[in-house]
Amino acid sequence: MSAERVFLYDTTLRDGAQTQGVHFTLADKQRIALQLDRLGVDWIEGGWPGANPVDDRFFAEPPRLARARLAAFGMTRRAGRSAGNDPGLAAVLASGAPTITLVGKSSARQVEGALGATREENLEMIGDSIRAACARASEVMFDAEHFFDGFKEDPGYALACLEAAAEAGARWLVLCDTNGGTLPHEVTRICERVLARFPGDRLGIHAHNDTGNAVANSLAAVLAGVRQVQGTLNGLGERCGNADLVTLLPTLVLKLGFATGVAPRALEGLTQLSRTFDESLNRTPDRHRPYVGAAAFAHKAGLHASAVLRDPSFYEHIDPARVGNTRDILVSDQAGRANLLARLKAMGLEPTSEQLARLLSELKAREAQGFAYEDASASFELLARRTLDRVPDYFELLSFRVIDERRRNAKGELVTLAEATTKVRIGDRRFFTVAEGNGPVNALDVALRQALAPAYPSLEHMRLVDYRVRILAPERGTAAVTRVLIESADDEGRVWETVGVSGNIIDASFMALHDAITWKLLVDGVHPPTRSEHLP
Amino acid sequence: MSAERVFLYDTTLRDGAQTQGVHFTLADKQRIALQLDRLGVDWIEGGWPGANPVDDRFFAEPPRLARARLAAFGMTRRAGRSAGNDPGLAAVLASGAPTITLVGKSSARQVEGALGATREENLEMIGDSIRAACARASEVMFDAEHFFDGFKEDPGYALACLEAAAEAGARWLVLCDTNGGTLPHEVTRICERVLARFPGDRLGIHAHNDTGNAVANSLAAVLAGVRQVQGTLNGLGERCGNADLVTLLPTLVLKLGFATGVAPRALEGLTQLSRTFDESLNRTPDRHRPYVGAAAFAHKAGLHASAVLRDPSFYEHIDPARVGNTRDILVSDQAGRANLLARLKAMGLEPTSEQLARLLSELKAREAQGFAYEDASASFELLARRTLDRVPDYFELLSFRVIDERRRNAKGELVTLAEATTKVRIGDRRFFTVAEGNGPVNALDVALRQALAPAYPSLEHMRLVDYRVRILAPERGTAAVTRVLIESADDEGRVWETVGVSGNIIDASFMALHDAITWKLLVDGVHPPTRSEHLP
User: Fold this and answer.
1) Tens-place pLDDT, residues A48-89
2) Of B62, B126, B188, B436, which sees the most CB atoms within 10 A?
């Protein structure tokens, strides 16, 4: 018997963009779309064409998706306009996306109170707009806003709205709990009644987490027979967020046995996807997130931990490896060792078991200080090579000094200046340089490059493409520890990331810069000048 | 018709203490117990007597609770011992707590695999231990560990374990989803079957969040007829946490109409309780937490915000005031005039249309520079008040200088130092201060506070709780523009966020610090000294 298929509709790039504190750039959107495509979701809602310049550019140059379909989101035409004469709708219709999703009202109270339209006119707005979309896209969905509230007020009218969309050609009818106030038992009851009218795979669920039930509401709908689930990565979304696909997916697949477009192998990448997604948005990954959190399979020492060793299923509801997570108990971690070995092998390193133990303990010590190597593979490679083999010392920092000054200039205006001085040794020569910069890290970067340029001309072809700062232990305010991640690129298309950690942000930045430069020179096969060698 | 009563059992101090990164001191436990008592929970599980010295001292000098009952937690006697000859059980029996809760197994597979006991011996262990507890405490509960897994394997044996406890005198039988792997529809089905055997108010539910369903599972149990709910403040607990009472309580009371021991007035304190609880543990409150999060009633999209102004119930599932939260209309580039007006009105400002236009254009100009006010409402308020009204200049920065230096110390080790000098004017006096710090921003913060302390003593009660850095235009590498967000808190439970933007991170941090201090002094109603006034 083949498993029943549930379809996943990701709205991270549209509804997730409503999250407080989240601002997607065009590059963010493109990167996330490719990640979602690789995961195996069925649709990626890319945004709302016409709403802002980033979304317009995203649809103008859509990412090349291997299998997911791109959906453009918009609203049914306004009251008093025709579908052909509504600029908002026109922008969505012109997006070129293969799937168009239009949201419209399905609550009579909302139609009259918020739109100021009549019940009949709203049905026409839905029908006209869906028909116009069907003429332009190969697949059209209707998001029934406030569906559950509308159904509770007037089931006949809520169903009539779905009917209008279905008659006009909508392939999917998505029941939205817009306020997030509906509880699971209500979702079950209402979905059963809607399914009686629209059987088969016609219905979707779009849940919000305002009562902490977005995941449960989505499950309730699926168990009632709804076959499309809308959600976001890590539950992004306005207010309390949307249904978290990262939580829902393993429950649907591993616990309920549904088929999705996500292959078992992709599911094993879920933990990494969830964590790097947060990191890329400068959000701290939630340690307690179901399935993928760092603490999701952590067992404090004692009773539980020893039972877990006897039989992991005693205290684990699934095998963490199936979502790419690892068990964390206070004994040597076999899975961690295996991962590490695989990673070293990929670098051409074959450590002895004594070397491996030394590297593991070095990694543990550094992770305790705040280093995170998941996003900084170049720094990881340097650490491994330094521990197991050797890495040339291309330069030695003797000292640096960075001064930031805010004071009045000759015209009496307050201005800020940043100036850096560095002293480095390369081979047997010392270089003193000084530079100004936009800010302290930039000044230090410029001064350091001035010092290194004569000995290492290939550094001219390297540039920094991203610079991220994460505050660890933020509860200590400005005295917290700082982690800096630097992404560098060179003219040969290489991109690499390095990390630095310190209580001082300048110092952390310097460490990450140092690693970035060292990795580049190592990969280029450059040899440092020896003490006796003559420099140009 | 009077509402049905649901009883709340808080296990923050016992199961919540298993949270990774949480370590309660005795004082923490005493303070939290009093907070829970004021809230109105029915039982407070204080810990596990005999397990650690903090728990022993807590029970030796229990907090004076006005109405909640204190519960001591422990385990049924071990296999092969008598109830009178088990040191672990003896410590619990001797605790003096009016309620004793004993956990025991209810899964045959667990009994045989983890305890190495027979099925019959486990039933005796439960019966003996419960009887011994009944002789010492006025009320005894049985926590049936792994109940749902056990019931799925062998319903007869799982029920026999409950039976053994009930016959021995247990007042409550608590069904524990120890692994957290049970889904809501399974909870409903199993609870219905257990209720057929134990009707009335005999059953409790203890849910974990490993599939993101701890709240939904608790609700499913209550809707099936279970009348005791166990959970923790903010969902603390090992792995993915326990059921979050802060989320459950408003759903039970406001949406399902159950009666609890929590008075409406106490429910209005829920937002503050949840946030100060996190603060006291040095955890950043989750902005997206249902009901009480800072973003739980925040409206970002222009469309939604204007509908909210017309009728809040359009986009709010409850009135935020009922849980002590507030509506927040976000200012962002998506926001229109309506959002802005609503926000100003909430501050008591009624701008003319000319003033509004001026503020909008100022906002636009600042957002183009990289300012983001939706996460920094205190900076927004200051900007609005400065544009429409006036804000006192509490101090004027004349200059600052920050030096970061990395060099060898006397022992020849490379060390990094940060030192800041500030020059400020307050009234007619100038203050020069110098300070060292962990890093440059910390040094600047310390120096500035030294300068301001004599004139503004209330700043001593303000602290920075979060410091976030976002790099804008990261493609410019270290020369990119930096946005700093600072979250501050004071002893009166206020939390506010401010923003600074500059190419120089030190400068951006200073701006955000300046706003944070100004907002605090403004809210406190402090007046700056005039030029002629004498300072202490």
Assistant:
1) 998 888 899 999 999 999 999 999 999 999 988 898 999 999
2) B126
Residues B197 and A292: their CA atoms lie apart, in Å, by 38
Closest-CA residue to B11 (of B39, B26, B28, B33): B33
Q: What residues in A contact B212, CB-CB < 8 Å?
A: 215-216, 244, 247-248, 251, 290
pLDDT given at position B304: 60
Asked if A407 and B397 come within 8 Å (Cβ–Cβ), the reply is no
d(CA A128, CA A120): 12
Would strands B203-206 and B228-231 be described as parallel, antiparallel, or unpaired? parallel
Helix (H) or strand (E) holding A206: strand A203-206
Task: Return the domain boundaries, chain B.
Answer: 7-267, 396-523
Topology of domain B7-267, CATH: TIM Barrel (3.20.20)
Q: What is the per-residue pLDDT across A225-237, written as a single tens digit (0 to 9) for each?
A: 999 999 999 999 9
CB-closest option in B20, B300, B403 to A298: B20
Q: How far is CA B201 from CA A189, A435, B257, in A?
A: 26, 75, 17
Q: What is the pLDDT of residue A369?
A: 77
Rounded to whole angstroms, the Cα distance separating B241 from A293 reads 11
Q: Is the pLDDT of residue B341 over 90?
A: no
Q: What is the pLDDT of residue B54?
A: 86
Per-residue exposure over B317-333, b if at least 16 CB sit within 10 Å of its own CB, e if not: bbebeebbbebbbbbbe
Cross-chain CB nearest to B251 (options A211, A299, A502): A211
Among partner residues A20, A216, A437, which is closest to B330 by beta-carbon distance? A20
Q: What integer pLDDT is reported at residue B333 of this predicted model?
A: 44
A441 in reach of chain B (CB within 8 A): yes
Nearest to B129 by CA among B159, B161, B168: B168
8 A C-beta contact, residue B342 and residue B307: no
User: Model confidence over B396-443: pLDDT tens digits?
Assistant: 999 999 999 999 988 988 899 999 999 999 998 999 999 999 889 889
Q: Tell me the two tokens of residue B235.
A: 């969902």
Q: By C-alpha distance, which of A82, A101, A2, A88 is closest to A43?
A: A101
Q: What is the largest CA-CA distance in chain A?
A: 90
Record: contact A211-B215, CB cut-off 8 A: yes
Q: Does A1 score more than 50 pLDDT?
A: no
Q: What is the DSSP string of B450-508?
A: HHHTTT-GGGGGEEEEEEEEEEESGGGGGGSEEEEEEEEEETTS-EEEEEEEESSHHHH
A429 close contact with B: CB closer than 8 A: no
The sheet with strand A481-490 has its strands ordered as A462-472, A481-490, A495-502
Pick the CATH number of A396-523 from 3.40.50.970, 3.40.50.2020, 3.30.160.270, 3.20.20.80: 3.30.160.270
Evaluate whether ipTM surpasses 0.85. Answer: no
Range from A511-515, B74-78, B315-319 carrying the lowest mean pLDDT: B315-319
DSSP symbols for B254-302: IIT--B-S--HHHHTTHHHHHHHHHHHTT----TT-TTTSTTTTEE-SH
The answer to whether A454 touches A534, Cβ cutoff 8 Å, is no
Is the pTM higher than 0.80? The answer reads: no
Structural tokens at position A383 = 């650490």
The arithmetic mean of pLDDT across residues B143-170, rounded, is 97
**Interval B214-220 mean pLDDT:** 98
Return the structure tokens found at B277.
């609880």
Opening angle at CA B487, ends A417 and A28, nearest 5: 75
**Interacting residues of B235 by C-beta distance below 8 A, sequence separation 6+:** A288, B209, B214, B241, B242, B243, B244, B246, B247
Nearest Cα residue to A125 out of A93, A88, A161: A161
Q: Name the nearest CA neighbour of B227 among B190, B199, B264.
A: B199
Q: Mark which residues 47-66 of A lie under 8 Å from B by CB.
A: 51-52
